[in-house]
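Please fill in the sequence for the structure shown.

STRUCTURE ENCODING:
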């Protein structure tokens, strides 16, 4: 990638710039555009490779548990996701899920929980998943029905989760269930469920537009030791939102990586493609498109790293993360679509880099809060402040 001047922005420290340079070189050598037909096997291999190379240390918080830093470093996570997404969408997915799946353990786990899970996540020896959504509770998370009932020193889980990334290959799942302390969002708790817990099963594997492991989960009298609860009983919604405050911004960063790759591909193509006695890039219509794409990329980057920096300062980031996620995902879709158009027929050939980006970006506008949900969050925060 040509322009890396954004790394000189005041949001970053020297270690961030060094991290990006090192990862960019590693990703170019080890994961660039590597795709295969067995997505599960590929994801497992990517988690192992990212773990062995030390990148997953940034996905967990706490040096005592294998983390790169004592606290989660949002800027590092965002730079890693952006860089991996630019090289290989599945590598970004593998990194992101280790972070999202273990984020609640880093933020709210007991000493025993952290000892049991985080080091294995950081080494790529255990695969993590985050199970919040249900068939009847997607955007409306508080409508969840999956229930956990206390039974002595254990909880019994019954219900379903769906759209769970890494479902089918994860070693453990952070599962949110209704414990009923109060109605709605105040009566939910979070639990770590091991993949071999009795009463837990993968009910269905789901295929999506850009393949990655995804499943519907079923809990039938699934017994979990009470020590596997993350945070206080009834505080699960807070656990979910604190985790999403980190990873929602990182979805923006991944979108940014996809958009940068599309812009790079479009620039190279426009300058090389001969037509009407000149190149595609010589036409002002093309230049207008490129200008729009580059400006959208920079605007997304500014919002993304503003949110990441602000969270790393320990400040509230709900509005900023929502602005970053909404803008970066929607802009990336437009940038990628413009790149596909510039490639003409080549742009829709299966597995061409821009065709793959076109599929890869779509779900990011839906998960971890769809664009409409981000709009509502931003407006709610504005009105509250007003
Ligand atoms: C590829 C993929 C991976 C995923 N991975 C995970 C995962 O790992 N863990 C997990 O827990 N979940 C995961 N999800 C689930 C994801 O978070 C949900 O799909 C998302 O929250 C939307 O929920 P829903 O699909 O039920 O859609 P719905 O909630 O039914 O929403 C449908 C539409 O309604 C719109 N909408 C919502 N509220 C409003 C409103 N107030 N006004 C107007 N429009 C509105 C939405 O924007 C959306 O366009 C994943 C989803 C996908 C597609």
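FILLED IN BY: designer on duty
SEQUENCE:
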């Amino acid at each position: 990638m040509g322009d890396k001047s954004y790394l000189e922005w005041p949001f970053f420290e020297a270690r961030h710039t060094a991290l990006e340079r090192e990862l960019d070189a590693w990703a170019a050598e080890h994961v660039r555009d590597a795709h295969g037909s067995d997505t599960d096997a590929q994801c497992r291999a990517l988690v192992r490779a990212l773990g062995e190379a030390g990148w997953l240390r940034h996905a967990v918080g706490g040096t005592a548990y294998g983390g790169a830093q004592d606290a989660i470093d949002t800027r590092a996570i965002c730079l890693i996701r952006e860089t991996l997404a630019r090289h290989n969408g599945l590598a970004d997915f593998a990194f992101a899920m280790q972070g999202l799946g273990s984020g609640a353990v880093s933020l709210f786990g007991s000493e025993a929980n952290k000892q049991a899970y985080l080091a294995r996540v950081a080494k790529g020896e255990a695969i993590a998943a985050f199970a919040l959504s249900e068939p009847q509770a997607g955007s409306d998370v508080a409508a969840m029905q999956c229930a956990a009932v206390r039974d002595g020193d254990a909880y019994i889980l019954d219900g379903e989760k769906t759209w769970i990334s890494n479902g089918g290959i994860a070693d453990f799942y952070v599962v949110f269930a209704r414990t009923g302390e109060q109605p709605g969002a105040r009566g939910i708790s979070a639990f770590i469920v091991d993949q071999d817990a009795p009463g837990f099963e993968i009910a269905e594997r789901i295929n999506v537009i850009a393949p990655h492991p995804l499943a519907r989960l079923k809990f039938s009298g699934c017994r979990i030791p009470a020590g596997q609860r993350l945070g206080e009983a009834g505080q699960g919604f807070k656990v979910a939102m604190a985790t999403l405050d980190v990873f929602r911004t990182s979805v923006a960063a991944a979108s940014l990586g996809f958009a940068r790759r599309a812009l790079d591909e479009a620039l190279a193509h426009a300058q090389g493609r001969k037509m009407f006695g000149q190149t595609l890039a010589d036409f002002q219509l093309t230049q207008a498109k490129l200008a729009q794409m580059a400006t959208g990329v920079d605007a997304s980057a500014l919002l993304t790293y503003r949110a990441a920096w602000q969270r790393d300062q320990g400040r509230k980031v709900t509005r900023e993360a929502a602005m970053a996620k909404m803008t970066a995902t929607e802009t990336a879709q437009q940038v990628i679509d413009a790149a596909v158009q510039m490639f003409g027929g080549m742009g829709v050939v299966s597995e061409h880099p821009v065709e793959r980006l076109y599929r890869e970006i779509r779900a990011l506008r839906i998960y971890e809060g769809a664009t409409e949900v981000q709009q509502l969050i931003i407006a709610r925060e504005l009105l509250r402040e007003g």
